[in-house]
Each structure stands twice: as C-alpha cells, then as structure tokens.
Amino acid sequence: MATAITDQHVLRGVFEAFQAWGDFECAEPYGSGHINDTYRVRVSLAGTPAHYLLQRINHDIFKQPDGVMDNIVRVTAHLRTKLAGSADASRRTLTVIPARADGRPCVRDPAGNWWRLYLFIEQARTYDVIAHERQAFEAARAFARFQSLLADLPAPRLHETIPAFHNTLSRLDALDAAIQADAFGRKAEVAAEIAFVEARRASCGHLLERHACGDIPERITHNDTKINNVMLDDATGEGVCVIDLDTVMPGLALYDFGDMVRSATASSREDERDLSKVGSRIGMFEALARGYLEGADFLLPAEREELVFAGPLITLTIGIRFLTDYLAGDVYFRTHRPGQNLDRCRVQFQMVRSMEEQTAAMAAIVHSVRT
What we know:
Elements lengths: L7 H8 L7 E7 L7 E9 L2 E10 L7 H19 L23 E2 L5 E6 L4 E2 L7 H17 L18 H14 L9 H8 L7 H7 L6 E3 L8 E4 L5 E4 L6 E3 L1 H12 L17 H14 L5 H5 L1 H21 L12 H18 L1 H12 L1
Antiparallel strand pairs: 1-2, 2-3, 3-5, 4-5, 6-8, 7-10, 8-9
Helix pairs in contact: 3-7, 3-8, 4-10, 7-8, 7-10, 8-12, 10-11
C-alpha cells in the first residue's frame, strides 16, 4: 500500500464523503496497527469538540474490501441488536458511518484507496502493553462476550476475508514455498528457525483434525485478539468494545484464545532482540483463562480441553508467518528496520518454548477455573 497520507486537504475530502456531522478541523495518525492507516478526525459539532475514526483499508492485504465491509456491517448490526436497551450500548460496538453518495459503508478516493469511518469511542482506550492482570482478564472477557453475542448470527456464512488465516498447515505450505524459493538469499541465516518449525510440524494439524471429525465446531471469531483490539473504559477498566473487525470471519474459538495467550502473556515487546527477556507469564495466563471462561459459556468440552494447546499453536503459527515474510522480502508486515520480521519470529518461537515448559501449570489453571 502507498505511504500514509498526511495532506489535510485530502483527508478532509475523504471525511466529507461520509454522512458525518460536524465541521472538519484536522485528522491525525492514531494507533499502532501494522496493516491499515488510521486517523482520529477532530470536528466541531455545533461548537463542541467531537471525534471520528477514519481508516484507509489496506487492499493489498484485504483484497476484497467489499467483503470485509459486508462482514463488519452485519456483525456490528447484530451486536447492536443484541445490546439494545443496555447501558452505553453505542460504546459497546463500532458504528459504521455510510457514504454520502450511495449509502455504502465505504468510500473510494480518486487514487483507488478504500476508506471507512466510525464513530470514535470516547472515554476508553487501547493498550499496546498490558500493565496488570486485571487488563488481561477484562480483555479476555470482552472477546469471549463478543464470540458469545455472535453465536446466533443468521446465515449466510461470513466472508473469509483472508482465507486460511490461522490454518497452520496452510502457513507451513507458504513457509515451505518461501524456503524453496529463497528469493532474497536469507535461508542460511534462519536454519535454526526452520529446524524449530520442523520439530513441531507433526502437531500443527491437531485442531484442524479435531474440527474435521466434528469435535470442535466452526464459530464466528475475531482472529486478531491482541490486547490493543479491546477498548478499556478509562474510569472502570472494563472491556468496553472489541475493535479492528477486518478479520472477523468463520474460525475456531480456540484460535482467538490462543492469540490472546500469545500476545497478552508476553513479557517483552514483539521485536525484542534480547531473548533472555522473552517468556510467557503464568499470572497473565490465569487472568486470561478466568476472563475468557467467564464469558465463553458456549464452549463445548472438546474446546475447553484444547485451551492450553491453543496458545503455543497460534504463537508458532504467527512465528511461521513472520519467518515466511522475512524470507519473502518483508512484503506483508510493516517493518521499520532491517531484520525486524526475523526478530519478531524469534520472539514468537521463544514464547513457544516458554509455554511448552509451563504446560502442566497452565492445564492446572484451566482445570481449576472450569471446576
């Protein structure tokens, strides 16, 4: 995708193409996402400051933006129906602002970019790093409630916005292809990482096998359950709203829990070079398990059985993706320095080691929460 747009005249033009109230004042970059370009728009609404969230969808990643937005409109409308009458309902799901010209949920600019606009949720924020276990608990409970509220979303099936997104076997195929091609001559540098994956290849299809035989059902899942995709209330700390809905699509509930474990239990930043600082924090895992199981009353026994396995599996999967991207020349994940994707891969693999060492302790926690 093209570089981020900073021209206020251009951003004003995009904003004014939506059915939004208020007089445009400015649009500033917002958040820390790797994929889309996000701006907080400040307006004057009859003399009172107000905000919107404007996003340019990365159509190099999401190749069918119409399908992405169709999913988001259906999901947010369903959530709004389920939340009707509850306190603060307008803060508990995203609100899509339609286009002025045709009422569609997105706008295309003259350069071919796809844009969307949401109401900005005030008095709540996201956190890139979890400060304490209460935040982990609240985020996990919010994602569980999100899954629960969507459990009865009517047909048809949601679009797969990125097919096989958390399918570890598909990610292995992509890695194998990148190793074979070695387009940038990096394979020799990552021999240890390739060996790490090979040692765990046999277990990569475990959840898919249980799904195929009917033990684990397909559900509507978020598929990117990092802590910074839940807004926490400024006053109470409660998980208010699940955001970043581009990857909401059919999947396994365990993928969402596994990605929470991957991101929330990490003791370091995602691209830490000193691996002695990297590990999975057992206290954070316990907070996640308690929060998630409090909200996920829909889980089947087979799903509960695999909660511990889901963490290292999804962490391995994300590490495989970082490794594949590094071998392919850093074409998917946004990087800010050479070797960043390889550093990210190594952090994920060190997290897998840490989780594997704590499997028994994690299983005991899940058992205690369940009983």
